[in-house]
Design brief:
The structure is a single chain. The protein contains 19 helices and no strands. Helices cover about 75% and strands about 0% of the residues. The chain is globular, with a radius of gyration of 21 Å. It is an all-alpha fold. The longest helix has about 30 residues.
Length: about 425
């Protein structure tokens, strides 16, 4: 059987979806870049600031599940257009004078618009790439988060310091509108699956069987721990640098790119290695499962030693490594699910997984806010928050490594699809 070729135009679609994810994470990042002046101007406590992050991730979790299942029914190009447009619109109320309630409302609206963004983009991308070529495109898509931070952090920091934090939000709104206009002309549905998935009883299995599979549970646990750390990175890194370690706003904002730079390297390396190993017949357990969970667990160990860094820069280095090693897990999970989940159910299953692991973001910012406000010192609270994140990475990463069994789940689903309907 001849391998399926990559359709013409796939790279352009991948590039546009990559930029889409860059903007997605820059929109998330702008709050923490502006966190210190916002907390100062509005007199917010660490717990109140943490509550803003929790409100955002709560809406992100809810909408992610809904959006994923809608992607099984509607063209992904339409879904992506509407989502990107909503991200842009909700930034503009932040340009004028605001209070705590306005910030919460705008971040909740952004969460509703961004929920499911990554997995809908993944679903769209997989319509352009066959299974054996998906690891690297998935890696580049995941890379959008790191590049979004690396590009946006210095730019938004400059705007916050030299113009105002209000202008930083307005800038992201304008960028979002420009991308949406370009996507209207460039975005297309991939030809490898039907543009709109239609129910096919013979091709479908009960969602409960897919969601209770070992690989699904393992991926969800691993990603939960990784996203716990990610949500701290999106909410608390700059306040940690400025309030915890004593750096200036400019230096703190620019330093916040370091973990993402390491993450960028691990994502691309993980995607390349996974593609290389799968192409040479290495079982998915090794080429995807272990390749994703082992760095995650090692990063957790590194995070446990953050308070023993010996200096401000020592803590930064340990934090940079520990968080950066979460990268590969984002590359391998969607391809593993793609091995056994029917095409017509893939978006829904990926969205369910996403909504479950993104729930870590609902809890983590508030937990950190509580620890910072009630710690012996502010720095002690930050250190305990990052240590707890490391413990989650270590424990859940090892459990996930044991659970993930894509070959077993593929055989199980094939048996279920062979059973007569009813």
């Amino acid at each position: 059987m001849q391998p399926i070729e990559t359709p013409k135009g796939a790279k352009l679609q991948m590039f546009m979806l990559f930029i889409y994810m860059v903007i997605n994470f820059a929109d998330k990042l702008v709050l923490q870049i502006a966190a210190v002046p916002i907390m100062t101007e509005l007199h917010l406590s660490p717990e109140e600031y943490g509550a803003v992050g929790t409100a955002f991730f709560l809406c992100l979790t809810f909408s992610g599940l809904v959006v994923g299942f809608l992607a099984n029914r509607f063209p992904t190009t339409l879904m992506i257009t509407l989502m990107a447009l909503s991200w842009a619109i909700v930034q503009f109320p932040m340009v004028g004078p605001v209070g705590f309630a306005t910030i919460v409302a705008c971040r909740m609206a952004l969460g509703l618009g961004e929920g499911g963004a990554a997995w809908v983009a993944t679903h769209a991308l997989y319509k352009w790439y066959p299974d054996h070529k998906r690891a690297m495109p998935t890696a580049w898509l995941s890379q959008g988060s790191a590049v979004g931070v690396v590009i946006a952090a210095p730019a938004l920091t400059w705007i916050v310091v030299h113009v105002s934090w209000h202008a930083a939000f307005g800038t992201m709104g304008v960028v979002g509108l420009i991308w949406t206009a370009a996507w209207l002309f460039i975005g297309k549905e991939g030809p490898l699956t039907d543009p709109v998935a239609t129910p096919n009883v013979a091709d479908r299995v009960p969602y409960s069987k897919l969601i209770l599979s070992r690989t699904f549970i393992g991926c969800t646990l691993a990603l939960f721990s990784a996203y716990w750390t990610l949500s701290l990175a999106l909410t608390w890194f700059v306040p940690f640098m400025v309030k915890g370690l004593g750096f200036s706003q400019t230096v703190g904002g620019n330093l916040s790119i370091l973990p993402w730079a390491v993450g960028a390297a691990t994502v691309i390396t993980g995607g390349f290695l996974s593609t290389f190993l799968v192409a040479r017949g290495v079982p998915s357990k090794q080429a995807r499962a272990i390749l994703g969970t082992l760095p995650l667990a090692i990063g957790g160990v590194v995070m446990l030693f953050i308070p023993m860094g010996g200096s401000d820069w020592g803590e930064i280095v340990l934090l940079m490594i520990g968080t950066g090693l979460t990268g590969p897990i984002y590359v391998v999970c969607a391809p593993m699910l793609g091995e056994f989940v029917p095409d017509s159910q893939r978006a829904g299953v990926i969205a369910t997984m996403g909504s479950l692991y993104v729930f870590a973001g609902v809890i983590a910012p508030s937990v950190m806010g509580y620890l910072v406000q009630h710690g012996a010192t502010m720095l002690d609270g930050y250190n305990k928050g990052f240590q707890f994140a490391g413990l989650l990475q270590l424990v859940l990463g090892l459990i996930a490594m044991w659970l993930m069994a894509p070959a077993f789940d593929k055989a199980r689903v094939l048996k279920l699809r062979a059973l007569p309907a009813g």
